Structure formats: structure tokens, C-alpha cells
């Protein structure tokens, strides 16, 4: 069995409702939906850094 790590996330009620509805639309849990979205964004960031190393120096959200 692989190790399990926990990650807690606080969000406002409106954000939770949006994520809950989106997760339901694709037939998954909120946790799985957020995990999938976070992994996709991480891979996008890795790709951007690989293609343009200067992106390492840009502030988040730039």
C-alpha cells in the first residue's frame, strides 16, 4: 500500500458550491475533482517552465 498524505483546503461557501456542482456534473467527488484540477495545473506549470525557463521567475497568476 502506498503512503497517503492529507491536504486541507479552506474556501468560501460560493467556491465550494461551484466545485461541488462541477464535480457532480462529471460524476466524481469534490476531492477527486480538486485533485484532478490541481494535478492538471501542476503539469501545465511544469510544461511552461520546461518550454520557457524564465517563467520560473514570474509571480503566480501572471
UniProtKB/TrEMBL annotation:
Family listed: Belongs to the TacA antitoxin family.
GO BP terms: regulation of DNA-templated transcription
Entry-linked Pfam families: TacA1
SUPFAM superfamilies: Ribbon-helix-helix (SSF47598)
Keyword ATP-binding assigned: no
Keywords, sorted A to Z: Toxin-antitoxin system
Key word Aminoacyl-tRNA synthetase present: no
InterPro entries, A to Z: Ribbon_hlx_hlx (IPR010985), TacA_1-like (IPR014795)
Protein name: DUF1778 domain-containing protein
Amino acid at each position: 500500500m502506498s503512503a497517503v498524505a492529507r491536504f486541507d483546503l479552506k474556501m468560501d461557501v460560493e467556491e465550494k458550491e461551484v466545485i461541488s456542482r462541477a464535480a457532480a456534473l462529471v460524476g466524481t467527488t469534490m476531492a477527486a475533482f480538486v485533485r484532478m484540477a490541481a494535478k492538471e495545473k501542476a503539469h501545465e506549470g511544469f510544461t511552461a517552465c520546461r518550454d520557457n525557463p524564465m517563467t520560473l521567475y514570474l509571480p503566480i497568476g501572471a
